[in-house]
């Protein structure tokens, strides 16, 4: 056997220093290294998914956030692999340093992102482009460290027993890819639903640092000096202490952050299988606020005006059967029920817990006038798109789309030409469709894209808005807690399938002038929001 510091054999890479002196048999040592590769790969993918999920939740537009995180991280992994060439001579010590740093940065990334969001107010003010900057910074740092793992692990596995490069790469990447599979499945099905985003990232960091430290201190400890072993043990214990302390305080942190985002009047905060639902106010004369994934969907002091503007123009005509897509809060149903002659109201809502709150929460059920207690109201828990596909044609006089903002990627299909084609099929002859299309003044291109898309589905449109400048309205659905950035108007599109003159509007709804030029219809395969 070649001694650890014997000269390298001909053709061996410069970093090769001979077989490591292991406390176990070489085959067992290789198995332990591949097991560490498996764990590190699983942790690395969880870090990536954590960043994507949290950025999508805080900033919306999950396609953009996923693209930013994954592209920056893959680029950084390449740079990290190149940089790790300089650490190969350090071998075990270099790998240990990478794992300690990665566990600290990756484990604390979700908490740091949420803290900045909570205490800087929707990334505004001094942070300006804070979401992108912080997201890119964490993606870059984590990607660099993940990229540095593979060359160092390759060095360690070759130190155990020399083998051809192709075989070593095959073994290493097999363990890496299987670990990534396990991490990718564990995040949505185990970590996120049972632990939440913050605790799952902290736990992942702890697993990461334990795996790296155990491998080096247990298997390659003879490659380190006594001083290096003490430093590594101290660093590992310190990082574990930081992560454990954060895990103990995570509930207090979440409460403090939630109050920073929503104010001190939070009554209900729950994570459903679909979204985070927060209720504020509603007692003691304070207006009720309903937040879905951090965006204000209902504000008690002006919601009635919004829902009246959404519902009443569409009810100007036959309205025996009405379909509400979304609207799980029951407020659109309340307005529909004020119209005599309404025999049935079908509500299609994706989140059953939101419907349950609308039924049982006293302030919210009082605000919707206990609409769900009316025998004419029937609730279906389903995806609106899928429900429309399964629905018989010509069933409803009115279809009301009270849905999240089209700028949120998960809702983009509900503002597509295909979706409006299905809604048109559900209408009876002479039936009407009404859509909330977002603020006109703040996002005119989005509004007119909605209108263009509805026309492309074969519907005749009458776009209108309710302006806030002279009404005192300062809020609207889908805004965040930063009132200085609140939209000042609400935009709607009323549509019908026939070719009669423009649809009539009430005196408070204002028709709009010429649309923004150059907008095109949004489709499932080419979303344009």
TrEMBL record:
Enzyme class, first EC level, given as a word: transferase
PROSITE patterns per record: PABS_1 (PS01330), PABS_2 (PS51006)
Active site (catalytic residues): 402
GO molecular function, one term: spermidine synthase activity
GO biological process: spermidine biosynthetic process
GO CC, any one term: plasma membrane
EC number, UniProt record: 2.5.1.16
Pathway: Amine and polyamine biosynthesis; spermidine biosynthesis; spermidine from putrescine: step 1/1
Binding-site positions, spermidine: 307, 329
Bilayer topology annotation: Multi-pass membrane protein
InterPro entries: MFS_trans_sf (IPR036259), PABS (IPR030374), PABS_CS (IPR030373), SAM-dependent_MTases_sf (IPR029063), Spermi_synthase (IPR001045)
UniProt superkingdom: Bacteria
Catalysed conversion reaction: S-adenosyl 3-(methylsulfanyl)propylamine + putrescine = S-methyl-5'-thioadenosine + spermidine + H(+)
Function: Catalyzes the irreversible transfer of a propylamine group from the amino donor S-adenosylmethioninamine (decarboxy-AdoMet) to putrescine (1,4-diaminobutane) to yield spermidine.
NCBIfam families hit by this protein: MFS_SpdSyn (NF037959), PRK03612.1 (NF002956)
Family in the record: Belongs to the spermidine/spermine synthase family.
Name under which the protein is recorded: Polyamine aminopropyltransferase
Gene symbol of the encoding locus: speE2
């Amino acid at each position: 056997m070649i001694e650890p510091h014997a000269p390298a054999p001909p053709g061996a890479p410069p970093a090769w220093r001979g077989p490591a002196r292991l406390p176990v048999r070489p085959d067992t040592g290789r198995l332990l290294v591949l097991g560490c590769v498996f764990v590190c790969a699983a942790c690395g993918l969880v870090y990536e998914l954590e960043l994507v999920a949290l950025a999508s939740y805080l900033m919306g537009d999950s396609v953009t956030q996923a693209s930013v995180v994954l592209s920056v991280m893959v680029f950084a992994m390449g740079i990290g692999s190149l940089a790790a060439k300089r650490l190969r001579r350090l071998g075990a010590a270099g790998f240990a340093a990478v794992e300690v740093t990665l566990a600290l940065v990756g484990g604390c990334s979700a908490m740091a992102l949420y803290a900045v969001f909570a205490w800087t107010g929707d990334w505004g003010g001094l942070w300006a482009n804070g979401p992108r900057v912080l997201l890119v910074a964490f993606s870059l740092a984590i990607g660099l460290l993940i990229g540095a793992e593979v060359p160092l692990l390759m060095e360690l596995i070759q130190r155990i027993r020399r083998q051809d490069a192709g075989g070593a790469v095959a073994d290493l990447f097999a363990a890496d890819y299987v670990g990534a599979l396990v991490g990718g499945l564990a995040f949505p099905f185990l970590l996120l639903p049972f632990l939440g985003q913050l605790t799952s990232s902290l736990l992942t960091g702890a697993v990461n640092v334990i795996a790296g430290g155990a491998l080096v201190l247990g298997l390659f400890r003879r490659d380190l000096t006594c001083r290096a072993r003490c430093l590594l043990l101290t660093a590992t214990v310190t990082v574990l202490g930081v992560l454990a302390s954060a895990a103990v305080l995570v509930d207090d942190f979440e409460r403090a952050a939630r109050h920073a985002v929503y104010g001190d009047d939070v009554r209900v905060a729950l994570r459903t299988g679909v979204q985070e639902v927060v209720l504020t106010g509603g007692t003691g004369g304070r207006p009720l606020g309903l937040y879905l994934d951090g965006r204000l969907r209902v504000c008690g002091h002006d919601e009635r005006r919004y829902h009246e503007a959404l519902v009443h123009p569409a009810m100007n005509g036959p309205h025996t059967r009405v379909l509400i897509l979304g609207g799980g809060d029951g407020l659109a149903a309340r307005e529909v029920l004020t119209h005599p002659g309404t025999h049935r109201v079908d509500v299609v809502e994706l989140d059953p817990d939101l419907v349950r709150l609308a039924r049982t929460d006293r302030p919210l059920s009082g605000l919707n006038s206990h609409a769900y207690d009316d025998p004419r109201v029937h609730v279906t828990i389903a995806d609106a798109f899928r429900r429309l596909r399964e629905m018989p044609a010509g069933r409803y006089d009115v279809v009301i789309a009270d849905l999240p903002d089209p700028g949120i990627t998960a809702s983009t299909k509900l503002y597509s030409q295909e979706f409006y084609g299905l809604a048109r099929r559900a209408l009876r002859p002479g039936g009407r469709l009404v859509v909330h299309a977002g603020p006109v003044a703040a996002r005119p291109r989005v509004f007119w894209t909605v209108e263009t898309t509805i026309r492309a589905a074969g519907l005749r449109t009458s776009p209108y808005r309710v302006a806030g400048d002279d009404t005192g309205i300062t809020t609207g659905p889908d805004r965040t807690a930063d009132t200085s950035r609140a939209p000042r108007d609400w935009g709607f599109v009323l549509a019908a399938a026939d070719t009669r003159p423009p649809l009539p509007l009430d005196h408070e709804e204002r028709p709009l002038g010429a649309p923004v030029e150059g907008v095109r219809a949004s489709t499932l395969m080419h979303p344009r929001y």
